Amino acid sequence: MKRVLVLHGPNLNLLGWREPEVYGHTTLDEINQRLRALADQRGATLRIVQSNHEGALIDAIHDAREWADGVLINPGAYTHTSIALRDALSAIAKPCVEVHLSNVYRREPFRHHSFITPVALGIVAGFGWRSYMLGLTALLDALAEQG
Length: 147
Hints:
The protein is an alpha/beta fold.
């Protein structure tokens, strides 16, 4: 059974209420329920963490080195600012998939750069809550191919 850390970064606790024209009406709890259902179908287990604090996200990544097979992360705005998150993901050397609800490349130019992408297997962006499902599917497929 594959074990995956799911990390939700800052402001994602406000999904469903915050800028629904950008992020949709689906709440974080609904996304987590859908992720758990998909993980159950695939025979995987999830540990889900949301924090608005960079250090808490880094601590969760560090902890994952002991138990997780991979990481699914939506770093939120830390995507564009956090070398520390990038370094933590690199340090644990676990496969990682980056996800975003919106298409960051159709938005403000400062959102076009990700510190996370260079250490991720891939990125899924622009499909709303489905980005998480696509990202988890890709991560589980990659983990299965590794054995």
